[in-house]
Design brief:
The structure is a single chain. With about 70 residues, the protein is mainly β. The protein has one domain. Helices cover about 0% and strands about 65% of the residues. The strands form 2 sheets. Strands 1-2-3 form a 3-stranded antiparallel beta sheet, with no helix packed on it. A 3-stranded antiparallel beta sheet has the order 4-5-6, with no helix packed on it. It starts with a strand and ends with a strand. The relative contact order is 0.24. Bound molecules: zinc ion (ZN). Zinc ion binds near residues 22, 23, 47 and 49.
């Protein structure tokens, strides 16, 4: 399930569902689409392990996404 909407700051965020590399649960995170490429650490909402997220954006569309254990 994917949804595009504007957050309160006015920037476009993207709700992306993926599998946690630690617990294999499907989790969703909001990705900030305002930058072309991003890489940061976000804790899993299920197992609380730090997931390294890396993704690319072009024309407000997600063109690459990777989630791995850091
Ligand atoms: Zn997890």
């Amino acid at each position: 399930m994917l949804a595009m909407f504007d957050d309160m700051a006015g920037s476009t965020v993207y709700e992306h569902a993926f599998t946690c590399p630690y617990c294999w649960e499907t989790i969703t995170m909001l990705l900030d689409m305002s930058a072309a490429a991003q890489c940061y650490i976000e804790d899993c909402e299920v197992c609380c392990n730090p997931i390294e997220l890396e993704f690319s954006v072009a024309d407000d569309a997600l063109i690459g996404f990777d989630a791995r254990s850091s």
